[in-house]
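Weekly structure sync, notes
Attendees: PL (lead), two postdocs, one rotation student
Agenda item 3: pending single-chain targets
PL asked that the sequence for the first pending target be pasted directly into the notes so everyone works from the same version. It is reproduced below exactly as submitted, 435 residues in total.
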Amino acid sequence: MCPFRLLPLIPLAFAAACIDFPPPPQALEFDAASDDVDLGGDLPSPVEDAPLDMDAPADADDEEIIGEDVAEADAPEVEDAPICDAQCEDRGCGPDGCGGKCGVCADGQICLEGACAPTPNPWEDLLDDRVGFGGQVTGGAGGPLCLVTRVEDDMEAGSLRGCLQTPSPVWIAFDLPVSAARITLGSRLEIGSNTTLDGRGHEITLAGKGVSLIDRQNVILHNLKIEDGVALPPEIEEDAIHVEGSVGVWIDRVSVRAFPGGALDITEAATDITVSRCRFADHALVMLIGNSNVTPGDGVIRVTLHHNLFDRTGQRHPRLRFGRVHAFNNVLIGWTDFGMSASMGGQLRSERNVFEAAVNIFAVSPGHPNDPLPGLVDSIEDLMLGGAVATERLPAQVFDPGRSYLYAPEVADEGLRARVIEEAGWRPVPFPGQP
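Predicted structure, written out during the meeting:
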């Protein structure tokens, strides 16, 4: 348990200190309204996912799922998009929905739901960057700051696991004598609700085992490296980040590489999640959204992916079943099996992403050979390089994320590609208040 002390200032050179502040604002209630998909009839027994050879000749069933040219005569007509009208009514700050801002808050303030509010803790400026279905997440905002001062993987004061025992909400940061530190985990790291794990100020690498968020609410993971996973016994998959049954999660600027399971799995009706500015490399099975083809309860899943880099990975960027995914301004380079896919009625809106094919050309597909039903796919102003191909299916029926949140996608061009390659993942930025 991390001890608490009241201090007039915020020194960063004391062992695992926690600083009490006034009680946090009332916890947010996340809206996870169901989007269940009625597929009709009995669902088949689950089929184990197999590596795909998208270049191999497909059988008749696969052609129907992946290469299907579905007639859209029955799809509802869609009017031309109107000229963007800034949405700033009753909003004094934040994005206007057209690429600009409704206003900028003064120093010491933060934009919360379109209004400027005092920021009692300077590290909470991170919340200014929230976008998407996870845009309401506050993590440990309003709670004490617990500082990790030791790299040992134990429950003692000063350790990461010790800080995770602090009653929530809690904002966890690092105050170590070295700028780069590797914490080798002997077992999975369980993150509690109303928690922020903030790696700014150091190059923090979590290795060996991954991070789990199981039936949690309101969690932020920021500016970390998670790599070199070890599965014991070897046949057991080890996910770098496993999100199951949780509501309200923001994963931002996290670099993930070399885990024997998935880089990021989002399953069991986990919803209202944003994954932003992350870097995925040296990985075969990257991102699974929706547990299997017999879990229609995953229809409530809502995920936003933006400004992530998938650098020469295998497949699942993501692989979606049942739920809804809005992917914008991501960069996929040289995937080996397939890029993005949606099946089992899942809805995928791919918007202004950059797909650079090398080994395999299938960038976006409405289906998967291991699933009996296709998904719905809308590809909007994506940039296709190297012969990359996007296959749409009933695009007019794909959900509109603009009805849920404001966002301002950049044009998919070489400039976006260069920025995401340069900036995605862990970054050497100071923790607010550090010299």
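Discussion points:
- The longest helix spans residues 414-423.
- The chain has one domain: 94-423.
Action: rotation student to compare against the earlier draft before next sync.
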